[in-house]
């Protein structure tokens, strides 16, 4: 199972001395550049994706995510640098690369007037399966992606989520070593997004390496083992979602009191447990929201301590909990599109653009209550 | 999951010239099938495609026909119907352009290009499907023409040659369609090409002999590729041919071959280059 395909594909090219070192990565780019006129869509982009992992590629519109995917999927030629998929050079060994990849772009790239089954059989034939095998594979994929009932319905009649699933299924015909998902849920409603996420998870369970671009931070958080943050054509961070979050100050404790008069007591209680190594000297207090927050290190001990202190002093607590910074905060912090997040209680940030605000809202806050 | 196990059985496709040639044909046929299913599933497009020439036949035979005079006492219907065959073939490039623009716009082109299939099949499949659909159009048009009383008076080889010239014109315009379809940003823009195509089809010998037009317009009409094909097939069908146009009209059959070859020579490389530039 899984990445077992690698051993089966002993092409001579993969035995080249030059590609031996690159072959250990599912995807490898070195100083990748792409210029469109004066604009540098990619400006020295490095990425190494381990086999069988899900790599998120996170960034705002125009950051270079799609350009990176197009180069890796052999659709565009880089202006500079090198890129390998499964050890094969995307410019010089495009044919070998194409046999090992699947691509699901921002549009559901299926033939609208063909049924789901006809689409998959057609793409199967174009992947050079014989008739019987293409038909069998189509039925398997239809069932895997929950499209068996709609198999003979014209794709035009499918919902957005169904189309994307059909599109994903078409990308999976040869069970690619690497699957590129370029904003696979853009424009889908929450239900459609969940459908696609489920489909992606089952692919990953089958051993496929996934490179996922998204503007939705919760999507990367949900699916990715590692997240590379890309801004203006360069990678500005690359780590696990948990590490990225930890990097901006770790967990916080958050206390909301009933009355404003209790705020100083809450500040005092929180101050006793806060982690002063994380930057701030004092807990952040928001009078309007009656909320006190501060970074903490020993999460459960801090929570227990604050809860006990407040109870002893008879402070009426409306809400108390531990809060982990969201990827949104990580992203905004890294790209500098938004400043410090210490005062987590602050309301709509005037400077945050609408899109970011929307993403934040969607991601919500992660709350762990004991 | 079944995806990985099934894939493990899939043999790696071997390279080599014969294998490539084989797959270039096989992939082309797969695309042809897809395109034909698409055409069949889209009744509005069929109605539009066949409806336009049918409407023209009826208009020019029954509405304008009696008022039209092509000289020499020839029957206007016998003059106009072969012209309409040629015009229908000529306007077919629009269909190619729109279809190519759709495939490009909807990301299907990207999917094809990211697959290990023969890249030429994307275009050759489109072309073959268009020729098949053009042949059906011609058959329908000819049936209607026969129904309203038109008759080819030439012998069988002449009649078949006439239809072959029509298909030749349509085939050469596939490259114009592919080029334009790749050039325009989207489907709508491709649809707007109609505004250009329509007068280009009309300023020809299709409905009126160029000799009866003002000099400057007549010159354009005379050199219009559609005119050459129209005149050549009129000759082969034994229908009235416009006179007085000089060398081009006298060598209509030659020109009906030269024009398509020239169009292909110009637009095939342009289309291929445009296709390759998708990678830039």
TrEMBL record, chain B:
InterPro entries: ABC2_TM (IPR013525), ABC2_TM_bact-type (IPR047817), ABC_2_transport (IPR000412), Nod_factor_ABC_transporter (IPR051784). It is a multi-pass membrane protein. Its main location: membrane. PANTHER family: NODULATION PROTEIN J (PTHR43229). Keywords: Antibiotic resistance, Cell membrane, Membrane, Transmembrane, Transmembrane helix, Transport. This is Transport permease protein. GO terms for cellular component: ATP-binding cassette (ABC) transporter complex.
């Amino acid at each position: 199972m899984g990445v077992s395909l690698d051993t089966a594909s002993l092409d001579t090219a993969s035995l080249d001395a030059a590609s031996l070192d690159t072959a250990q990565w599912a995807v490898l780019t070195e100083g990748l550049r792409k210029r469109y006129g004066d604009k540098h869509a990619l400006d020295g982009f490095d990425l190494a994706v381990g086999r069988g992992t899900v790599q998120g590629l996170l960034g705002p519109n125009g950051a270079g995510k799609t350009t990176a995917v197009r180069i890796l999927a052999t659709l565009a030629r880089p202006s500079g640098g090198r890129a390998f998929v499964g050890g094969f050079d995307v410019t010089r060994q495009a044919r070998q690369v194409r046999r090992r990849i699947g691509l699901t772009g921002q549009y559901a790239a299926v033939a609208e007037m063909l049924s789901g089954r006809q689409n998959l059989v057609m793409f199967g034939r174009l992947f050079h399966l014989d008739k019987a095998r293409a038909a069998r594979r189509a039925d398997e994929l239809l069932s895997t992606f929950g499209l068996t009932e709609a198999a003979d319905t014209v794709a035009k009649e499918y919902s957005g989520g169904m189309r994307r699933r059909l599109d994903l299924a078409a990308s999976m015909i040869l069970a690619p070593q690497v699957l590129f998902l370029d904003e696979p849920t853009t424009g889908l409603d929450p239900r459609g997004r969940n459908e696609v996420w489920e489909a992606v998870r089952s692919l990953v369970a089958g051993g496929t390496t996934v490179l996922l671009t998204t503007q939705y931070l919760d999507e990367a958080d949900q699916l990715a083992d590692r997240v590379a943050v890309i801004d203006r054509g360069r990678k500005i961070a690359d780590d696990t979602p948990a590490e990225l979050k930890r990097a901006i100050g770790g967990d916080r404790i958050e206390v909301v009191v009933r009355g404003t008069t209790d705020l100083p007591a809450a500040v005092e209680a929180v101050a006793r447990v806060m982690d002063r190594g994380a930057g701030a000297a004092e807990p952040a207090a928001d009078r309007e929201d009656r909320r006190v927050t501060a970074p903490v290190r020993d999460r459960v001990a801090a929570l227990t301590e604050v809860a006990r202190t407040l109870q002893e002093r008879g402070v009426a607590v409306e809400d108390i909990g531990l809060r982990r910074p969201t990827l949104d905060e990580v992203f905004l912090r890294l790209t500098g599109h938004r400043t410090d997040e210490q005062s987590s209680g602050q309301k709509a940030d005037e400077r945050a653009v609408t899109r970011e605000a929307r993403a934040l809202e969607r991601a919500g806050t992660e709350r762990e209550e004991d | 999951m079944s995806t990985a196990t099934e894939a493990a059985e899939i043999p790696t496709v071997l390279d080599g010239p014969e294998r490539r040639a084989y797959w270039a044909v096989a992939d082309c046929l797969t695309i042809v099938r897809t395109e034909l299913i698409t055409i069949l599933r889209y009744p509005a497009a069929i109605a539009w495609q066949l409806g336009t020439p049918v409407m023209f036949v009826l208009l020019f035979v029954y509405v304008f026909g009696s008022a039209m005079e092509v000289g020499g006492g020839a029957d206007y219907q016998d003059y106009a119907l072969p012209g309409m065959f040629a015009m229908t073939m000529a306007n077919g490039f629009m269909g190619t352009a729109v279809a190519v623009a759709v495939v490009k716009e909807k990301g299907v082109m990207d999917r094809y290009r990211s697959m290990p299939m023969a890249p030429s099949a994307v275009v050759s499949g489109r072309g073959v499907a268009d020729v098949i659909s053009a042949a059906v159009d011609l058959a329908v048009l000819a049936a209607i023409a026969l129904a309203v009383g038109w008759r080819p008076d030439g012998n069988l080889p002449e009649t078949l040659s006439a239809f072959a010239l029509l298909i030749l014109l349509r085939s050469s315009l596939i490259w114009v369609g592919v080029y334009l379809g790749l050039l325009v940003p989207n489907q709508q823009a491709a649809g707007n090409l109609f505004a250009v195509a329509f007068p280009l089809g009309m300023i020809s010998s299709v409905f009126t002999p160029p000799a009866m037009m003002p000099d400057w317009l007549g010159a354009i009409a005379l050199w219009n590729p559609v005119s050459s094909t129209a005149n050549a097939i009129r000759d082969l069908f034994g229908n009235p041919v416009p006179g007085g146009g000089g060398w081009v009209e006298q060598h209509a059959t030659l020109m009906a071959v030269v024009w398509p070859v020239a169009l292909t020579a110009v637009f095939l490389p342009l289309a291929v280059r445009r296709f390759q530039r998708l990678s830039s």
